[in-house]
Amino acid sequence: xxxxxxxxxxxxxxxxxxxxxxxxxxxxxxxxxxxxxxxxxxxxxxxxxxxxxxx
Length: 55
Ligand SMILES: [Zn+2]
Ligand SMILES: [Zn+2]
Hints:
By secondary structure, the chain is mainly alpha-helical. It contains 3 helices and no strands. The longest helix has 9 residues, at 31-39. The structure holds zinc ion (2 copies). The site of one zinc ion has 6 residues, from helix 1.
């Protein structure tokens, strides 16, 4: 499975692949998810779009 264009690959993968978060201890936060949550998703981390427009 590949993330849809414009989606953050990391956030999408973590949302889709529950096994990633299953590895965390109970109550432990996912570092990469927290990073994107607080700092936003980096543009280079997003799946490429065919069109250059944002919307
Ligand atoms: Zn995560
Ligand atoms: Zn993200």
